[in-house]
Design brief:
mainly alpha; Sodium/glucose cotransporter; two-stranded antiparallel ribbon; 75% helix; 1% strand
Length: 370
């Protein structure tokens, strides 16, 4: 009864119809939203540092990630170890130097002084609960974001996502538990490695230190914050940080492509199209799936307007369409025996429909009373 994919669990719990529907859901979501955004934003970041165009960077990242993915989960696992090491070291160094640059705005020096200056000059960026007068309130509606939306999105992402859970599903129980705990510890470093440099870049841009480096067409583009900081690092350190960025992008692409190939091969091709397929043929199908998904991402990414919307906002918005229904289906499937396949199907499909309606409802009527 080994389970290697999330649709396999759903088939055991709810049946083939739900499993197939969700497999198709995830394939579409991973290719159109996740793979495209990772590829495009990664290319944008690398291009900002190197001066190379976005399309050549996308091709480089796609080929590099495809080669790693074709090596299987073992290669991806070793790559993850390397990229995490580079990411943590390079990220902390980048944060330290960014804060040091901020300190110089107040005629000081050092990261600690920089943090104090940053907090005093951009205090509103340290607030997690936005007020109604904030221009981003409709995207992050105050306390309801933390109480409702964030819990749903995070529980769905970390617990019901093939991209995340495939490492644990492929390991023995003790290793999986240790890996989850270590990953949780690393996640605690993300505000320091990811959020702090972004706020520092905002402060530096507002002070005029960065010039037009963070602007596209005269408008501020948050996705250029980290690459802009990397370009300001001294030689040597810049190489470490750049290697960390590239490794993180490639590892993310490889992991996502592996998830796509695994779901398509095991849950669509083997179970629905060719049940008697040989293992050798399955490996070939998986490799072709990786290549096709990368090609689709390269074609689709420039058309999605990711750079205008902002990468994080783009991913959260479209995954948020399906997150509530998927999480409800899994939680009720875990803890309530009376949950039926029809209810699970309604949660996913109905949740998607309701999410789309609620997305556009504020543009059609006044909902400020909520």
């Amino acid at each position: 009864n080994r389970i290697y994919t999330m649709p396999q669990f759903l088939e055991q719990r709810y049946g083939k119809a739900v499993a197939t529907t969700m497999a198709l859901f995830w394939l579409g979501l991973y290719v159109v939203v996740n793979l495209t955004s990772i590829l495009y934003l990664g290319a944008l970041a690398i291009g900002s540092v190197t001066g190379v165009g976005v399309l050549p960077c996308m091709l480089f990242l796609a080929v590099f990630a495809a080669i790693i993915t074709l090596g299987g989960m073992k290669v991806i696992g070793y790559t993850d170890v390397i990229q995490v090491t580079c990411l943590v070291i390079g990220g902390l160094v980048t944060t330290w130097l960014a804060l040091d640059l901020v300190a110089k705005l107040g005629q000081g020096h050092g990261a600690l002084q920089g943090f104090s200056t940053l907090y005093n000059t951009t205090r509103d960026h340290f607030e997690m609960v936005l007020g109604r007068d904030n221009k981003n309130y409709m995207d992050l509606p105050g306390l309801s974001t933390l109480i409702g939306g964030m819990w749903i999105v995070n529980l769905n992402y970390w617990g019901c996502n093939q991209y995340i859970t495939q490492r644990a599903l492929g390991a023995d129980l003790p290793t999986a538990r240790k890996g989850l705990l270590f990953a949780a510890f690393l996640k605690l470093l993300m505000p320091m490695i990811v959020v702090m440099p972004g706020i520092a870049a905002f402060a530096l841009d507002r002070a005029g230190v960065l010039g037009d480096a963070m602007r596209v067409g005269g408008e501020l583009n948050p996705d250029r914050a980290y690459p802009t900081l990397l370009a300001m690092l001294p030689s040597g350190i810049k190489g470490i940080a750049f290697a960390a960025l590239t490794a993180a992008v490639v590892a993310s692409l490889a992991g996502k492509a592996n998830s796509i190939a695994t779901i398509f091969t095991l849950d669509i091709y083997q179970k629905r199209l060719h049940p008697d397929v040989s293992e050798k043929k399955m490996v070939w199908i998986g490799r072709m799936t990786v290549i096709v998904s990368m090609l689709l991402a390269i074609v689709i990414a420039p058309l999605m307007g990711i750079d205008k919307k902002g990468g994080f906002q783009y991913i959260q918005e479209y995954t948020g369409f399906v997150s509530p229904g998927i999480l409800a289906m899994f939680l009720l499937g875990f803890f309530w025996k009376k949950t039926t396949a029809d209810a699970a199907m309604f949660a996913t499909v109905g949740g998607l429909v309701f999410s789309i309606i609620l997305k556009f409802l504020p543009t059609m009527m006044d909902l400020h009373f909520l």
